[in-house]
Specification:
Elements (H helix, E strand, L loop, with lengths): L14 H41 L7 H35 L7 H7 L4 H30 L6 H4 L1 H21 L10 H20 L1
Helix pairs in contact: 1-2, 2-4, 4-6, 6-7
Length: 208
C-alpha cells in the first residue's frame, strides 16, 4: 500500500494519482448538481422563447433573431449535456471497470486520453465556447455598429482577432488529442494550448 492513501483504498496507487482521482470524482458530482440548475434554466428560457416566437407575426423582423436565439440555447445545452455525460461515463467506467489497473484508475484514464469518449468532453466544450464567445462578439457588434459609433470597425478588430485565435487554439487542442498516447500532462504542447486558449478567452470576455 502506498503511503499517503487510506488503508482500504485501491492498492498500488500513488498518493498523487489517488488525490487527483478523488477530487476529479468530487468535481464530477458537483458538476452534475450544477447541470441540474442549468437544465432548469434551459427549460425556462426555452419556454419563454417559444412563447415570444409565437407572439411574433410572420412579417416581423425579429422572428429570425428569436429563432436563432432558440437554436443557440438548444445548441449550448446539447454541448453541455454531451460534456456532462462523457465526464460521468469516464468516471464510472474508470472507477468500476479499472479499479485494479496498475497505477489506479487515474493512470488508466491517462492512457486512454485520446479515445473518443475522452475527446467528447473537450469537443463539446470547444463548441460551447465558440458559441458563447460568438454571442459576446455579436453583442459588441450591436453596441458599436448599430449605435453608429465612429470608428466602430476598428474597435471590432481586436475582438475579432481574439475570437479567431480562440477557435484556432481549441481546434489545435482537439487535434493534439488525436495523437497516439496523448496525455494532458505528458505533452507540453497540449498544456500550452490549454493555457493559451484560457488566456485568449479571458481576454476576449474582458474586451467585449
Amino acid at each position: 500500500m502506498s503511503s499517503g492513501t487510506p488503508p482500504y483504498a485501491t492498492p498500488n496507487v500513488s498518493p498523487l494519482y489517488y488525490r487527483n482521482h478523488k477530487y476529479g470524482f468530487i468535481g464530477t458530482l458537483v458538476s452534475l448538481m450544477l447541470y441540474g440548475v442549468a437544465a432548469t434554466l434551459f427549460v425556462l428560457c426555452l419556454d419563454v422563447d417559444i412563447r415570444l416566437l409565437k407572439k411574433c407575426g410572420k412579417g416581423n423582423d425579429n422572428v429570425w433573431m428569436k429563432r436563432l436565439l432558440l437554436l443557440y440555447i438548444c445548441s449550448l445545452f446539447t454541448c453541455g449535456t454531451a460534456q456532462i455525460v462523457a465526464s460521468a461515463c469516464v468516471t464510472t467506467i474508470s472507477t468500476l471497470d479499472y479499479s485494479n489497473y496498475p497505477g489506479g484508475t487515474y493512470a488508466w484514464a491517462m492512457t486512454q486520453y485520446n479515445k473518443p469518449l475522452f475527446k467528447t468532453g473537450p469537443v463539446a466544450f470547444g463548441i460551447a465556447n465558440w458559441l458563447a464567445n460568438g454571442l459576446m462578439f455579436y453583442r459588441c457588434y450591436v453596441i458599436y455598429v448599430h449605435s453608429n459609433t465612429r470608428g466602430a470597425i476598428y474597435i471590432l478588430v481586436l475582438p475579432c482577432v481574439l475570437y479567431i485565435a480562440s477557435v484556432c487554439t481549441q481546434i489545435a487542442f482537439v487535434a493534439q488529442l488525436t495523437s497516439p498516447d496523448s496525455n494532458i500532462f505528458a505533452l507540453p504542447n497540449l498544456a500550452k494550448l490549454i493555457l493559451s486558449n484560457f488566456a485568449i478567452n479571458a481576454s476576449l470576455n474582458g474586451v467585449t
